[in-house]
Amino acid sequence: MHLLYNLVTYLTSFLLKIIALFSPKIKLFVNGRINVLSTLKSKIAATDQCIWFHAASLGEYEQGLPVMEEIKNRFPKHKIVLTFFSPSGYEVRKNTKVADVVVYLPVDTPSNAKQFVDIVNPEMAFFIKYEYWHNYLNELKKRATPTYLISGIFRRNQLFFKWYGGFYRNALNAFHHFFVQNSSSKELLLELKKTNVTVSGDTRFDRVASILEKDNALDFIHEFKNNTLTVVVGSSWPKDEDLLVNFINSTHHNVKFIIAPHTIKEEQIASLSKKMLKNTLTYSGYSIETLRKPDLKEYQVFIIDTIGILTKIYSYADIAYVGGGFGNPGVHNILEPATFGVPIVIGPNYSHFAEATALVNMEGCLSISNQNELNEAFENLIQNEDIRAEKGHICSTFVQMNKNATEIILKEIL
Asked: How large is the average pLDDT for residues 302-318?
């Protein structure tokens, strides 16, 4: 099976190089890996002490960030090496200050894995939530490197729990300890005779709870809001935007809308702007104007066609809509608006996300499936300050009650 795995890995790597000729995203995936090993050699000396974190993408990075920050604080002389599988993670966080070296993870071949681990020689390795790369895990196991899974989550339908999943189960033997999000994940691992398991919860709660301690002020958002009830739309997709545009264009309430789409390609932003009947401005249009800045108070819709500031913008929200809930796998991160005590509206696809399921059941978050339900949800929240406050309180309390996963993890490993 291991031979077949490697064969498929080599074949996939070859095919991706061909696909990269036609796909900008795959081109980033392929080209970003060309010089990884030489980059590592130039940045890591044989005498350096390293700790390795691996994140599949941006979401997993955010999930692991509290642990990375604490490890960096406690091991200030060590180099933190951070790897990403996906361009959507690497391209956004390649300059993060929490890590000393940030690179793509080379394709999981035996040669790449051996060279990578030889160069980095990590004293500890952390895999965030999932991604079980067999050759890398084998190399770590050979060297008896303490290896941890943090914020892990396991489901019955995964290959580990199939009768034919022995090859995948073997990969789990590399882990010294599993820190999982819930008791059901622990029970599944216990079925595999894995007793080195702790239910620590989800480290994302620690990350979003810490946001409250930071400076979230944005002067231009303060100016735009102008003491007006504001709906912040985060990570919206076209299906979300179709419903939202209809509501925005038809509402007679004195409400402002800030929209931060998931995709910020110029043509999509232009298309979204054209659909608006209300006075609309884009962030790029505002930021490039240096001589005569627009009077933001005069606008009703602000489209944020940049990245990296959505979290701060949520601090100005009275109501939040989080997109992705009409697609697969579903809704994006609802914990960021939740930590600010904001009532949240989402689409119908959220069952794969425990925090969304919990907040819907607790009624801090409202799930809608069509235009009428969106209109009703917004009308109710806009017109009733008490309901906004009640649902917002549910959301903020939920975050506070579920933090401290990082502390549990560090107590176990240090």
From this structure: 96
